[in-house]
Design a protein that fits this description.
single chain, 85 residues, mainly alpha, 3 helices, flat, binds magnesium ion
Amino acid sequence: MCSCNRSVEAAQVGQAVEECAELIVALQKYVNRTTIHDTVEAILDEIADVEMMLAQMRLTVGISDEMLQKRICQKFAKLENDLKK
Ligand SMILES: [Mg+2]
């Protein structure tokens, strides 16, 4: 991979981190809310941003739908198993 691809990748990862941070802030404001409408709209915006960045990150890193679904199923199975203990 050439260094220009690495810098594009680093910029994409940086943007993904920033969008995740913005969602965290919106969720924290929801917990401490004074007006529900504004916080729900902010969360909606930030979830949309994060979903878009996750789709981009999956393409960048090379994670297919199948790989993701398999991992989610594995995690659900583990959670289900842990809850039975
Ligand atoms: Mg955002």
